UniProtKB/TrEMBL annotation:
Protein family (similarity comment): Belongs to the binding-protein-dependent transport system permease family. CysTW subfamily.
Domain of life: Bacteria
Protein name according to UniProt: Phosphate transport system permease protein PstA
Residues spanning the membrane: 12-34, 66-87, 99-123, 129-149, 181-202, 266-284
Species annotation: Desulfofundulus salinus
Gene3D superfamilies named among the record's database cross-references: MetI-like
Compartment annotation: Cell membrane
Length: 294
């Protein structure tokens, strides 16, 4: 076999592998959307779920998912970015750095159900918060933090050394170089890491079963007091997310239209994740162009 034929065969195999992945993804998305898109309407998206009667929606679950996303990323993004900067720019070779990397790798491999049990013990019971949004956000932060740290470190390391040297040669301090040169150049990778971490927040269910709970109080959206039990802004109230709701109605729901609600909820979750990824990447490109004037 000559080199040209081997190159063509390898190219065909690569294209076949990519096509197989796209076909599987299209099949899964098509199946979920085909069964669920007919259920979605304004009433389904805004009304609360029913316990026994038919016709319930997923309004509170959608709000809880986005609120949990904000709380989780508010914790994960700054800590992950600062840890990534430290490991990429300031940490030298030594035992402490090795222990930090070992801890990050260990946390990355932990099953989410184990993190959920840890959250149940620490964030739910020991703090006295009970099942709450804050407990779920801290548990998800434990899951997402290693990923955010690794992506931040790799994104910062991928910035060419010439940019650092040029900035320092012009008289900039190390912090000014980091803030004005390295971070804008690493911004696309940081956005990608944030999107991946946010996507895990939307799809996570196992850890939230033990921390955020499987129920949600009747929310009064006119009550903006964050300490009111019925306020949607209260971070210490139970909050069933959309992913947990899908698991719950498929396992223990008593409503007669279980299949309808399950199909509609799955389709809403898929559409929300797709829309969030598209908007986040569009926003990330705009911010990157502003920061780099490109």
């Amino acid at each position: 076999m000559n080199a040209r034929l081997a190159d063509r065969l390898a190219t065909v195999m690569f294209w076949m592998g990519a096509a197989a992945v796209l076909a599987i993804l299209a099949l899964l998305l098509g199946y979920i959307l085909w069964h669920g898109i007919r259920v979605i309407d304004w009433r389904f998206l805004t009304t609360p779920p029913q316990t026994i009667a038919a016709g319930g929606g997923v309004g509170p679950q959608i709000f809880n998912s986005f609120y949990l996303l904000l709380l989780t990323m508010f914790i994960t993004a700054p800590l992950g970015l600062l840890a990534g900067i430290y490991l990429a720019e300031y940490a030298g070779k030594g035992r402490i750095t090795e222990y930090i990397r070992l801890s990050i790798e260990t946390l990355t491999s932990l099953p989410s159900i184990v993190v959920g049990l840890f959250g149940l013990l620490i964030f739910v019971n020991m703090t006295g918060w009970g099942y709450s949004l804050m407990s779920g956000a801290l548990a998800l932060a434990v899951i997402n933090l290693p990923l955010m740290v690794r992506i931040s470190e790799e994104s910062i390391r991928s910035v060419p050394c010439e940019l650092r040297e040029a900035s320092l040669a012009l008289g900039a301090t190390r912090w000014e170089t980091m803030w004005r040169v390295i971070l804008p150049s690493a911004f696309p990778g940081l956005v990608t890491g944030a999107i991946i971490a946010a996507g895990r927040v939307f799809g996570e269910a196992a850890a939230l079963l033990y921390t955020a709970g499987m129920s949600s109080p009747i929310l009064n959206f006119s009550d903006l007091n964050p300490w009111s039990p019925t306020s949607p802004l209260n971070p210490f109230r139970p909050a069933e997310t959309l992913a947990v709701h899908i698991w719950k109605i498929n396992s223990e729901a008593l409503i007669p239209d279980v299949r309808r609600v399950a199909d509609g909820s799955a389709a809403v979750l898929i559409l929300v994740v797709l829309l969030f990824n598209i908007c986040a990447r569009w926003l990330g490109r705009r911010i990157y162009r502003r920061l780099t004037a490109m």
